[in-house]
Amino acid sequence: MRLVTWLVLLHASDTGGAPLLQERAIELDDASSPASTVQAPSTQPPDTLSRGPFSVMYIAGALDVRGLVTRPLGPIVAPATPVLSTSTSAYAHRTSSRVAVVLQLASAGGHSPWTPREATLITATGRHVRKLLVWQSRPLESKDTDVMLVLEIEATPKELRGRYLLELREDTTSPPLHLGPVSFPEL
Q1: Burial code of 44-58, b = ≥16 C-beta within 10 A, e = fewer?
Q2: CB 156, CB 97: distance < 8 Å
Q3: Tens digits of per-residue pLDDT, 40-64?
Q4: What is the 3-state secondary structure (H, E, C) of 108-171?
Q5: Which of 13, 52, 127, 132 could make an SS bond with 151 (beta carbons 3.0 to 4.6 A apart)?
Q6: What is the pTM of this model?
Q7: Are 79 and 86 in contact (CB under 8 A)?
Q8: More confident residue, 112 or 22
Q9: In terms of DSSP bridges, do strands 147-154 and 163-169 run parallel, antiparallel, or are they unpaired?
Q10: C-alpha–C-alpha distance, residues 167 and 144, integer Å
């Protein structure tokens, strides 16, 4: 038998106060499951498979030795934007292999639950540059002010150095929601 442990960061809204780092463990039979194919235990949220590596590193607080560079983004939600309030905050992040935008979503109210499934970086000329992985802590309800949205993609330190708009969509047929400008810090 082998004991596998990992750290889980619980969001403040899930703990009733400050974020909480917990250690979790599971015993595995060495013969039936090699370390490289360990499956997540049932205590892990079912949406974990949709999270990319940056989301997992961000939530757990573990990053590579070169670290993480973060830049707060100014107001990125226009006043007339449906669904999102102008009080939505955003930070751009870069590691040696990934970039991400982490948003703390605040609802503008008067809408049904909203969850973007697609995110694309767009240049000022309207050229679609890259699709990003999307992870959201829960659907944004009409009165929410604290829903986390993480958008990420692989990128070397020399890539994605310009200014972009984020285009978010619930699906391929839904109208786009544009946020920006977004620029990633240099490592």
Answers
A1: eeeeeeebbebbebb
A2: yes
A3: 343 444 454 556 655 666 555 445 5
A4: CCCCCCECCCEEEEECCCCCEEEEEEEEECCCECCCCCCEEEEEEEECCCCCCCCEEEEEEECC
A5: 132
A6: 0.67
A7: yes
A8: 112
A9: unpaired
A10: 21
Is the bond leading into 181 cis (omega within 30 degrees of zero)? yes
How far is residue 121's CA from residue 168's CA, in Å, rounded to a whole number? 9
Helix (H, G, I), strand (E, B) or coil at 16: coil
Q: Which position has the token pair 């109210």?
A: 109
DSSP state of 27: E
Of 124, 125, 84, 102, which Cα lies nearest the Cα of 184?
A: 102
Does residue 65 carry a pLDDT above 60? no
